[in-house]
């Protein structure tokens, strides 16, 4: 499972319906479960981004499909980072020949 850190910003539509944000997050969690992914946590933030979600998904394609489907609803825009655990990074370093 890969780890994906998603920086989320509300669109104009999303901020207008901010009271629904917790329900939308629950719907996203359910969608992730249906696709074999897991929401590790969701944080609502102060600062540059409105929300941060940490998701584990079986592959890049699944993570991308989940974010495309969610983004198509018009409430959010996303930027996603692929995160690597300590063990994954150790393996990457070993493969690099260093």
Could you give the topology of this structure?
Layout: E1 2-10, H1 12-16, H2 21-34, E2 38-44, E3 51-57, H3 60-71, E4 76-83, H4 86-95
Antiparallel strand pairs: 1-3, 1-4, 2-3
Overall spatial form: elongated
Strand ordering within the main sheet? 2-3-1-4
CATH superfamily: Lrp/AsnC effector binding domain/regulation of amino acid metabolism (RAM) domain
Mean pLDDT value:
96
Low-confidence stretches: none
Query: What is the first-to-last residue Cα distance?
Result: 25 Å
Helix content: 40-55%
Q: Secondary-structure element sequence?
A: EHHEEHEH
**CA radius of gyration:** 15 Å
Largest sheet: 4 strands, antiparallel
The beta-strand count equals 4
List key phrases describing it.
98 residues, Alpha-Beta Plaits, 4 helices, alpha+beta, 4-stranded antiparallel sheet, single chain
Can you characterise this structure?
This protein is 42% helix and 32% strand. The protein has 98 residues and is an alpha+beta fold. It has a four-stranded antiparallel sheet with strand order 2-3-1-4. A hairpin with a 6-residue loop joins strand 2 and strand 3. The radius of gyration is 15 Å and the shape is elongated.
Short description:
The protein is an alpha+beta fold and 98 residues long.
